[in-house]
Amino acid sequence: MTHVFVRSMTPSGISLRHDTRDLDALRALLVSLLRDGHRDEAVDLIIKLLADMRDHSDALQVRLHTALRQLYGRRSEKTSPEQLALFEKILGESVTAAPEEAAKPQEQAAKDDKDPKKKPSDKPNGAAHGRSEKPASLPVDTEEVLLPEAQTICSGCSTVMTLLPAREVWWIEYVPSLLRVKSVLCEQRNCKRCNLIVTAPTPGKIIPGGQPGPGLLAKVLVDKAEDHLPLERQQRRLAREGFTTPITTLAGWWTTAADLLKSLHEVVLKEAIGAFLPQIDATGLEVLDTKHAKGIRQGHLWTVAGGRAVAFVYTPVKSNGLEKLLEMRPFVEGSTTCRQPVQCDGENLFNTVQTRKGAVIPLVHDWMHARRYFERAVKSGDVRAAVAMKLIGDLFGVERTANLAGDSDAARGDRRREHAWPILERLRDWIGEIRGGVNPSSPLGKAIGYVERRWISLIVYVGDGRIAIDTGWVERSIRRVAIGRNNWNFSGSDDAAVRLATVATLCATCRHLGIDPWRYLRAVFQAIADGVSSSVLTEDFTPWAWAENEAKKANAEKVAAVG
Fold it and tell me: Are the C-beta atoms of 378 and 87 separated by less than 8 Å?
């Protein structure tokens, strides 16, 4: 039998704790209670034992299901409408959509009927929609295929046939990337009479005496930090393209180039953490350590998404990284102890760090993590949690409608107060009704407890359209690292992990801004080779500043071309 501790009241009113691992002792206790006429106490004890065993079994079932899902199952957290309909049938009550969401299919159908340009389609959802247009962003190599001269003469009347527009057949072809040696010949002159030699200015190099140019260095960094291609695989690819170099050389390029970007990393980090409401989360990162018993230990990669930036910060100790980030948050106006809020999940470490540092930082939580607790309850077999999942899904439905409508922050806030607030009230009422019949240690009980303890920080988003309903932005940024590390497994040292965070920060910010990270880093390295000062680098070569300058150049070129 499972090791369970049970509290029961003896006839004398003294609270005792019984260890039911010993079945003989349990049997003796029950016999004693029945012999002394305490039948109700004996029944309560048995019921309590069975309830504890059931809860323990449910907890093990949830853990097993979670482990199997992580190994073999689908990672998506979406719940199909068919499954929700089944839950509704089991519950015997209506798990209905919010009024706004229920009306959308009918409204869309009406719009489609009124639109004469809208043609009915018998293709299933997700089916291919035919061949796409020729990509305008790719260069075109045109080849002409001419008719034999004999076929240009009409076989009926023997006259020369009229030339028609050519019939075009096209496809996408791949040509291996072109590595080239760039040779710069600097003119030299010599005065034999004065024994004087004058040489034209020599272009600067990023790595003194090294081979790589700005474009090649940018490629190595983007391939490793953005596309998660280890240096060993990059070495093989370069060899196939005609350039052979030792992997130690590639590692030296990576180290030197990443260290040159540290000042930009600090600027991007300040931009992210200083935004209105940055989202913060962390993921593990294994690091080699010869002093550790296993030769490897767990480090942590903190991620901050806010404003125009996404930043990564590596720290060997998880709490130390969070302390650094929270200490970078500005103080609330007029206060020297309360800092501006951040958005995060419900991890207790945020509260622990605040307590240890004696700081006050309001936390805004998100509904994505709250939903996961109810999903676990459903997976454990408690279909009652489907009601909460449907209501939370309706909250996200309001956000989807706002996105489709292109709402401003103010309009989004108005929409939330009109449509999301009633859903939250229904959820709160449902929790109040069901709470008494739910074991707090069960998956559903934990889900309810999670929401109740964070209710204020969960509903605050309704009052401000700038606040996201979830922390999806930061989680998506982390997911790229979490998936990519399957390729490289670990970092070679703490310093190597810091370099990874540095380069990944610039690449992730470029991705957020819609910038090609290779073009951006090539421009940065060219500027460094040209000898720009550190102040110019951090002012004019942040991803957003560079993108703005590039847009101005492009507009100027268009104006000049038109003129």
Answer: yes
Confidence of residue 359 (pLDDT cuts 50, 70, 90): confident
Query: Token pair of 236, please?
Result: 């093989």
Report yes or no on 46 lying in a domain.
yes
Structure tokens at 420: 């999301």
Tell me, what's the pLDDT at 129?
A: 55
Structural domain boundaries enclosing 57 = 5-72
> 308 with 509: CB under 8 angstroms?
yes
Contact 36, 11 (CB under 8 A): yes
Q: Is residue 144 part of a domain?
A: no
Largest CA distance in the chain: 126
How many Å apart are CA 237 and CA 229, to the nearest integer?
10
- Look up the pTM and report it: 0.77
Whether 286 has a pLDDT exceeding 60, the answer reads yes
Q: How far apart are CA 39 and CA 35, in angstroms?
A: 9
- Work out the number of other CB atoms within 10 angstroms of the CB of residue 23: 9
Q: Please, which pLDDT band fits residue 66 given cuts at 50, 70 and 90? A: confident
525 three-class SS: helix
Crossing angle for the helix pair 231-240 and 214-225, nearest 10 degrees?
A: 130
Any domain includes 397: no
The alpha helices in 308-462, defined as continuous H runs, are: 318-327, 349-357, 367-379, 385-405, 409-415, 421-434, 443-453, 455-459
Q: What span, in angstroms and rounded, lies between the C-alpha atoms of 467 and 270?
A: 20
List pLDDT tens digits, range 480-490: 888 888 888 88
**Would you call 398 exposed, middle or buried from its count of C-beta atoms within 10 A (0-12, 13-18, 19+)?**
buried
| Secondary structure E strands in 279-343 | 279-288, 296-306, 309-315, 342-343
> From residue 242, how far is each of 180, 239, 450 by CA, in Å?
10, 5, 58
Residue among 368, 383, 365, 366 at smallest CA distance from 443: 383
Q: What pLDDT was estimated at residue 118?
A: 46
Residue that the structure tokens 């006050």 belong to? 360
How far is residue 512's CA from residue 547's CA, in Å, rounded to a whole number? 12
Give the pLDDT band of residue 83 (cuts 50, 70, 90): low
* Reported confidence tier of residue 509, pLDDT bands at 50, 70, 90: very high
Q: What is the DSSP letter of 147?
A: P
Residue 504: inside a domain, yes or no?
A: no
What value does the mean pLDDT of the chain take? 84
Total number of domains constituting the chain: 1
Most confident range, picked from 26-35, 37-46, 308-317: 308-317
List the structure tokens of 225.
Answer: 């930090």
Report the SS3 class of residue 252: helix
Among 501, 508, 539, 487, smallest CA distance to 259 is for: 501
223: pLDDT confidence band, cut at 50, 70 and 90? very high
| pLDDT for 227 beyond 70 | yes
The Cα–Cα gap between 281 and 511 comes to 19
CA 326/CA 354 separation, integer angstroms:
9
Query: Does residue 91 contact residue 383 with C-beta atoms inside 8 Å?
Result: yes
- Find all residues with CB under 8 Å of 109, minimum gap 6, and list them: none
